[in-house]
Specification:
Largest sheet: 8 strands, antiparallel
Number of strands: 30
CATH superfamily of one domain: C2 domain
Structural class: alpha+beta
Keywords: Cytoplasm, Membrane, Phosphoprotein, SH3 domain, Transmembrane, Transmembrane helix
CATH class of one domain: Mainly Beta
Strand order of the largest sheet: 25-24-27-28-29-30-23-26
Oligomer: single chain
Protein name: Dedicator of cytokinesis 3
CATH topology of one domain: Immunoglobulin-like
InterPro entries: C2_Dock-B, C2_DOCK-type_domain, C2_domain_sf, DOCK, DOCK_N, DOCK_N_sub1, SH3-like_dom_sf, SH3_domain
Radius of gyration: 36 Å
Strand content: 15-25%
Subcellular location: Cytoplasm
GO biological process, one term: small GTPase-mediated signal transduction
Amino acid sequence: MWTPTEDEKIGVVICNFRGSVTQGLALEVGETVQILEKCEGWFRGFSTRRPNVKGVFPANYVHLKKATVTNRGPHETVVPLEDPVVTEVTSTLQEWASLWKQLYVKHKVDLFYKVRHVMMELIDLRRQLLSGHLTQDQSRDVKRHITVRLDWGNEHLGLDLVPRKEFEMVDEDQISVSDLYKMHLSSRHSIQQSTTQGENTRQRHGEPSRVPVPHHLLVNLKSFTYNIGEDTDIFFSLYDLREGKTISEKFMVRLNKNGGPKNPEKVDRLCALFTDLSNKDMKRDLYIVSQVIRTGRMLLNDSKKGPPHVQYRRPYGCAVLAMSDVLQIISELKEEKDFVLKVYTCNNENEWYQIHENIIRKSSNKYTAPSNNYGLIISLQLLRGDIEQVRRENPLIFSRGVAFTRKLGFPDVIMPGDIRNDLYLTLERGDFERGGKSVQKNIEVAMYVLYADGEILKDCISLGSGEPNLPEYRSFVLYHNNSPRWSEVIKLPIPIDRFRGSHLRFEFRHCSTKDKGEKKLFGFAFTPLMREDGTTLSDESHELYVYKCDENTTFSNHALYLGLPCCKDDFNSCPNIPSSLIFQRSTKETFWICTQLSSTKLTQNVDLLALLKWKAHPDRVMDILGRLRHVSGEEIVKFLQDILDTLFSILDDNTDKYGPLVFQSLVFIINLLRDSKYYHFRPVMDTYIQKHFAGALAYKELIRCLKWYMDRSAEVVRQDHIQEAMRALEYLFKFIVQSRILYSRATCGMEEEQFRTSIQELFQSIRFVLSLDSRNSETLIFTQAALLNSFPAIFDELLQMFTVQEVAEFVRGTLGSMPSTVHIGQSMDVVKLQSIARTVDSRLFSFPESRRILLPVVLHHIHLHLRQQKELLICSGILSSVFSIIKTSSLFFSLFLCFFVCFFLVYFFFVSFFVSFFGCFFISLFLSLYLSFFLSF
């Protein structure tokens, strides 16, 4: 017996049903069915595609979904309980399907494949949403990608654009006309910014892209066709020809003598991701450089040279691939593309260090192809976005154990929480004596990282990503060369707690090719990783002293050589060196290395170190604070919390003496975080203010200094420092408010009246700055513009300490102090109206009690510009925002507001055809009506 369903209301068909039974309903996989009745394993209902055709179908052919039912009965409405974005994707793909097929029929093949690609992306993104494994941020990110792709497809298929708010479709009857228009503008902007594959979708709708999207290059070694017959190490890196330097770490692949991976687990998993390549990097003259180092005999074609049990690292060949030749290809693809690299050997081994440059410049007399085989076959793929997003969108790539290969320096955007402590050491060159031999030496360098107690640090040397770290490094050997040039980069990932007190020791051995194949030690060099002042090795070349020793030297007591000078600078600081030493310096031999530090915990900057240790030099505090501006931004953001703690500690120590300099330093740091490179550190600053800031007395000095700068704006010709303070207004108020909160907690609200008085006096100074006549002073215009740009950002901070009405009074007085003329200058008029627009869009304006206070001054300035027919577009935007806010607050006035908006638009488009007098009259009339009608609510 058929009975109406209670819970089984909607489902998705999971198996085709022909409908060959009586009253059967033919269904296809993927159709959505609404269920009306059920009876012993059968359902009766209809497909949402054909709601007028009802029939029966097996219950087990349908996957049931939860739904909400309204108006139960014959005319009930069933809505699935699922994410609205998922529902939209489903219905949109069904709508696109027929249109997509028509593209092929109409021979629009290019658009056919593009739409297919976007549809596949939407299916994958929908799957991610349905998985239920995404965090809230990840879910928002996926929805953002979905909406941009939906808008792109609707645009290119000639369908209507869908207005959305927070990625979901909106009911156009519930929002204002102006909001609907803004939503369509936002969708249009997203489409224009995205490429045909829906790329560049990393930003929110309508938001400017503050942070550039990083690129990541996937390199996968598929085959090495040369049969060397020995174990082989292949290194891949990115090389900038224009600057003549490597910009990335190395990716290392170890192959056995048969050409397969030395580690069997890495079969088909020889891939690396070169991360954090900026737009600037992509425009460089980049090359993928692959160097092949074999491990075995000294001379490959001479089996007599060296006994078989002695292994030497020897250079074999090099291959290059110009990124400019392949970038366009891999940018347009979403899958890996194969490329072939031909390997060349060096004609003169002494020039091995520059073989890649010779190949790039086609100096064919300096290299030779050892075989007609192609050599290396690699595949490349270009990925975009932050690492987490790339990982989420390409799970198959990361399931292959991809090796992350970073840039040698920091990326363009330094993310908070990116903990890094890598020292990159380049083994440059050496000059050694022949030592009485008839031929030159075969020199091998061994390097160790040793702690203060002489212990060799394990796993602190990396030849390249993709392979485990090593306890020691051994260089490749150049045959019969007393002045070898290696130019080999080694990464030293030394733990931060082991960096201080550690040193590097380089041991030099001659590799004999005689029967015994001995490696005889003949000298060594060393260098500490940190200087006595606490700074690390500077990023430059270092010439190290070479000390004589022999094969019997054990280095069991490292203190015997650590007291010796390691270089010329060290020698100059050690004037009294005894002549009778165990190790004597070889004055005719030298050794060069180059270091580059990429650390978020260690610094090479003397000025920054002096600031952090200011208590050791109390007489130099003034000079130390003044030199903070010379510290690079990378160093400041690395030590942001420590620097802020130090500044407020200095302020507490002597407010009167150090207050102005601390204020200037704080302003400098705040403005530094406005740079797109460090913009991601603003949340770090916010977290510091909320959880770590402890300057309970700081608000007094910050208010005093800020007021002092504003009061001087009418006197000073150069106002650079004043403008910087104005730009930092938002975070200065964050510090002021948080400091006052801390003080109130500690003192149970003491000095509340004094604080309120100081804020009122500060706003008097703000009004004073804005009231100044700047028509004849470009400098003053810049100061006023900086203040107006920052002013709306302080409202939320003030609301923590004052009532809504009090803050509104502050704002009304400030906006009212601006000159009532529109002839200051077009740029200043725009800044003034933009500040008003941000005020209208702020949280403060959403309160009815504050709108009652702010509306008169807002409409007053709009009226002035409308009367002069200036900046009409911005004025219309402000008015539409006002209407939207009031509409959402009270739907009773919707009809009146729509009439008002229509009048304004008619006036806007036809104002040039009317006499100015009548236009001004009508606008004034309606503004007056508007004021009188709304101010009472």
